[in-house]
Amino acid sequence: MMTYNKKYIDSVEYDLIETRKRMWMMERKKNEELLKKYQQAMSDLEDYKNLYMRQRSEMENYQRYIEKTINNIKANANADLIKTMLPVLDSLDAGILHDEKLKPIRSQLIKILSNYGLKEIESRGKKFDPYLNEVVGIVKGDDDIVVEEVQKGYILNNEVLRTSKVIVSKGGNNEQDNRN
Length: 180
Hints:
180 residues, alpha+beta, Nucleotide Exchange Factor Grpe, Chain A, domain 2, 2 domains, four-stranded mixed β-sheet, three-stranded antiparallel β-sheet, 2 helices, 7 strands, 57% helix, rod-shaped, GrpE_head, adenyl-nucleotide exchange factor activity, GrpE
């Protein structure tokens, strides 16, 4: 049998231990690098996720903006068309005073226009509202009550298209102004 020198064995053990230490250090370094790469990848993933969410939110906001813009364009186009129809309604109102047979035509036209958001302002017998009514005459009577509509007013999609021209009563005053 062969006998080994104690120094030689110690030297081999030392080399083995040192080799293991180096391997362990290399693995540790490699693991640290992998951990850093993993952490960077997770950070990048989070950044991309946030970017995606922002882009998605911006796209949804843009779609809502486009829809709102299209609806406004439609509403304005309808408003322009309906405004041009108001003199026709005024003519029908004047014609009804002479011929009741025009009432169904006016009703039909109002029904069609109401499908596009037009509403008549009902003022007669109600308290004067400066947002809905324009005073064209004042008569003696209860304060601020609309006694007569000289010209109908209209609301389109909750916005005043044309104010009603009205005669309003004022308490204790004689007829002061009556412009027709």
